[in-house]
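idk why but the lab printer keeps eating my pages so im just putting this in chat instead. protein + flavin-adenine dinucleotide:
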Amino acid sequence: MVKEIQLRITLQEEAVADILVKKSAQSLKIKQDDITGIKVLRKSIDARKALIIFNYKVAVYIKETLPQTSEYTFNYKDVSKAKPIHIIGFGPAGMYAALRCIELGFKPVVLERGKNVQDRRRDIKAINQDHIVNEDSNYCFGEGGAGTYSDGKLYTRSLKRGDVRRIFENLVYHGATEQILIDAHPHIGTNKLPKVVQNIRETILKYGGEIHFETRVVDFTVKSGKIKSITLHNGLEMSVNRVILATGHSARDIFYLLFKKKIALEAKSFAMGVRVEHPQHIIDSIQYHCSGPRNELLPAASYALVQQVNERGVYSFCMCPGGFIVPAATAHGEVVVNGMSPSKRNNLFANSGIVVEINADKDLYKYEQFGPLKGLEYQKDLEKLAFTAGGRSQTAPAQRLTDFVEGRLSNDLNPTSYQPGLKSAPLHSLLPKPIGSRLRKGFESFGQKMKGYYTAEANVVGVESRTSSPVCIPRNEQLEHPEVSGLFPCGEGGGYAGGIVSAAMDGERCAEAAIIGL
Ligand code: FAD
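predcted complex ->
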């Protein structure tokens, strides 16, 4: 017999050997010896009160053998001679579109401007150490897209938008730990992601798909309302029938190309702000109610904060406990910061984007001349401003949190995880007022919600500008662009995803739509 039960385990109990067996036996009023195995189905930590509780959902096997391994299988077919579907971009959306094509019996032909994960590493090093931005290979572009050297948090709010579990099982199939199927806030970590991405590439190639790295799509032709061909950076033209456009929100050249060709685009609301970095022990002591180091059974603490300020949301975004701030620029002359963490989340710093909602209809009136690209131009201006204020390299402008809120330049800055380095700058006066003033009020309110958060020991680092796409590439119910039959805008760049999992789910959906009638 197998029974599913919920268990509440205190922090002290968590350290006890076989505690799940003991507690399950008590809960079910059976002998411990009758329990033949326990499978953890879900685990979360409730640290809201001083008594920290681990909440478990477990399957208790009573006089029955516990299955030893879980096999997640996907029905991949040999597609080497099948009809092609062209996929532009090999981020989570493009990767999962390609895998789904193979399951459905179609051949994915992937075109990716960046390099494979191994070669991409050198460009990541160059931006961190030498401040050199390769415009085709960086934290956003290359095999696995922005999802490879990312944090790998797999939390998504889009529960209704597809089968999250299926994406998780596929990640496990490709080498991610099974723990992601259990944790309430699953996380892979930047050190483990490249291998998972590489395994996905190997599956696609093994079943007959094609992947062309260092291949940038620069143009396409449309005849009688239908996409006919795409042009590559080297001038080569490829005939196409169905194209999944999964180029992400940093592929500005693609937005400009569509705009130039008078193909409908829409401005979209998004968010921008700064990244704040605290010593991890401060966040631990607030969240775990402790004065010294956190208990070794507890992971580096995280937080999620939100506050409405003058009719716009100010909120934490992509919080990375035990992580690093990274330079996520995709072009020369801009500074963009983002965050990531290794699987153990054992770095000394906690960083998070703190961003302000930018309403495309109400906040961009000075940029109206740019039409649907007004948000993109606003985003670019902020990134240029950060570049100038940081000293015209990848060094980022920064300020102590208290100085930022109280409006004075910092004499010196706190230590940081940001490898290209920080330069003291008056971000409080440099940021556009609608962002800067809301951030300052937001930080004050966060300090009241989390006592100790508002501290001179934290740095504010500029700018966090790539939270989501400022442009939407419209699509109809068949997921095709309403003006270009055969073109399927997909993932975060089109405005249909926000994060790894939702982009992957959208990739699957677009593949399913693209094969119809082929
Ligand atoms: P992308 O991942 O942006 O992929 C687009 C791909 O298209 C790129 O590889 C690019 O090179 C390619 N491309 C662009 N233009 C062209 C062209 N013209 N021709 C050919 N190829 C082209 N999300 C989370 O859910 N959890 C996290 O913890 C997390 N952490 C992050 C940390 C960092 C540092 C960054 C940068 C992002 C993070 N994200 C995180 C966001 C996440 O990575 C994105 O939401 C996700 O990757 C979007 O997937 P996508 O496939 O739509 O686009």
